[in-house]
Amino acid sequence: MRAKLSDKHQKALNFFDSKLNGKFITHLNSCVHCGLCGESCHYYLATKDERFMPARKVDLVASIYRRYHTFAGRFLPKLVGARDLNDETIEEMVDVLFGACTMCGRCSVHCSIGVDVPFLVRTARSMLVEMDLVPKGLQSTVDAAINTGNNMGIPRNEFVDTLEWLEEDLQMEVEDDNAEIPRDQKGKKIMYTLNPREPKFFPLSISAMAKIYYAAKESWTISTNTYDVTNYSYYSGDNEGARELTDRLCKEMKNLDAETLVLAECGHGSRAIRWEGPNWVEKEYPFKVITVIEVIADYIRSGRIKLDPSKNTQLITLHDPCNLVRAGGIIEEQRFILKNAVENFIEMTPNRENNYCCGGGGGQLAMSEYNERRVESGRIKADQIRATGAKIVATPCHNCIDQLMGLNSDYKLGVEIMTIGEIVANALILGVE
Amino acid sequence: MFTIYHWIFLAGFAICLISCLVQFFKVILSGLPKDFSHPLGKTLPAIFYSFTGAMSPTKKETAYLHLPTYTAGIIFHIGTFWGLFYLIVLFFNIQLPEWLGYSSTVLLIISAICGLSILIKRRIVSKLRNLSNPDDYISNILVTGFQILLAVTILNNQILTVLLIYSTVLFLYLPIGKLRHTIYFFTSRIHLGFFYGWRGVWPIRKHNT
Fold it and tell me: How far B116 CA lies from chain A's nearest CA (Å)?
């Protein structure tokens, strides 16, 4: 007999049922419990905790489906491992689906069958949103973005001040009083977004991009109202919040009459805005969206900027952000850039779409309750970095940078972590026509 | 000449087929999800790659890190599909060369050993045991048993009735247990290929930078 569901559980189940389209049904029915996916997951590899195997995560979600939507699950739940949607199941879902998965998708690429694990995990997270069960830290990051316009809650005047002093620095560095960091200018070709961590903690990455735009003589601007490239609602599973944040960017693009939305070095932000955003707002964007990595690569190819690799002599390796690479298709551009900007480059193993997650995705950096697990799961990345012997780790993602900086300290890697923009800015040859 | 067991078998097969087709078309008719984003790649080559290159042991980590299990799984599946073909042969009493019968028996025995080894592995490896439910064991036992029984029937046609009854049970169980991945494997690879193709990740490009 199935237990009667509480109103809260019924609401969650109704949401789950509303998502049962062909894709969801397919992935809920596909896992054969071969268990080979464990070795593709950095959580399982680092901890050997069976609960963290991707197949176990899939099973948690699929067991609900089996219980309420299959013949065997309704009448013989133990036979097929069908579970009631009750407090115990939900507690396990919160712990494992939020606290032990970065939705990096590495398991899906290598799955024997082809189960889209991040898709199932995110849909289950959305179900947990219906019950207000998003971990506090992640929810407050989403709330900050919704309520203040950026996930770090930076006041607008503080942001403008930061841009102003960065502009003065830029003028001194390039020895040109006309060099600028354009703010809220209408009719520019590019509206450039930022990760709020940049103005808050890493302003030099803004300077680096401003220098590159200056060298390329780009027509660009930053909105001081709507500049946040991140969308933590993607991680929390809050579709309404995700739609709201996407919609704000669309409106600002229209307001500033810009042609192209350029996404800063942010893996999940790129994914959320470029790939998921149009589906949240349920329409195609009336403007072009590309990542800043593609922009820089294009500057190099077209000769708009010239680089001197001898300005970056140390051995550099590259970390592939999952959302930008495996789930975003930006795989070779950053390699092309680095090979033009540095003298010594070494790939880590494995790399590209097979690279391991650093452990900072999936909203993990915002969920302090799972800090210990996050750092432990990062051991796989730390081992990869150490094996390269590199002195600098480049990565086009500020989330990854935060996690890598933590791993650098926790695992005593002795490396420097840099954005692609910083490396390129360092190699720029200015004053070349 | 058809006996009552032939008709029972046919009924079981028909129920299985209809149930599988209903599940398959339910998924297929809902189509691929509407994607409003601007594609970076092509989906058709990626779906093709999803069924080919992405499944190869050179690309798939679950294959090259677990080569014995992967190989056993492949042989087990080849044995199953060959077994289904041979079941039709026996059902309609089609005469095939003797050497083909002996070869099929050998294949089915090897395949059954593979199935059995996967079953034993599931039982003794803790992470697999804890992941499994009774359906995982029943599904394997049903298919492995089918292969063994078929191999014996090829050598001794007298037990065809037993094979037909056993196969009926197998067909009736297929749509309700794990064996229904027969249907969802294909839709799963299509969806995954579409996803990675749309975003320009698959097919894997030549590294030219």
Answer: 14
